[in-house]
Amino acid sequence: MSDLNKICNVLDKLTLDALTLIEEEVQMKLNIENAMCGGEMHLAKSRYILGQNSVSSLQLPTENSPHFEATVTVHSEKDELIGEKTRYLEVVKREDQIDPVRWFGYLVPQDLYHAQTMFRQALQWVIRATNLQMQLIETCGTIEQLKELKRKLSIH
């Protein structure tokens, strides 16, 4: 099998991989959209139950609020062997940490907790979609390099 045939076979495989990654990324984006819409719906229900001013941006921390730290942080790792970055979520648990739902009171409707769960799920899907996008960019870069190599081999 010649080098040109080998490159064509690898290009075919990488193109199929790219299409699979595109499909997975589209599915992740649909999942994100559904989770965000569901979370927003639960927020609207909570706002209806508690009243217009009970669930609003007025309850969110401002610059003058006491300091608080995020409950979830995003980290990235670079694989030295492949050169690929992956991102993951780290959930931080501390004893003194207050659940952000408590910013809206102590007797809040279950819909507020459901909204929180849906937004957290959306965040996980955003990270997965980002990782898929990075894989897709790397795969497309490899495809372009192989196409250039194929052109050079075809000329000779």
UniProtKB/TrEMBL annotation:
One of its GO terms (biological process) is vacuolar proton-transporting V-type ATPase complex assembly. InterPro entries: Vma22/CCDC115. It comes from Asbolus verrucosus. This is Vacuolar ATPase assembly protein VMA22. It comes from the Eukaryota. One of its GO terms (molecular function) is unfolded protein binding.
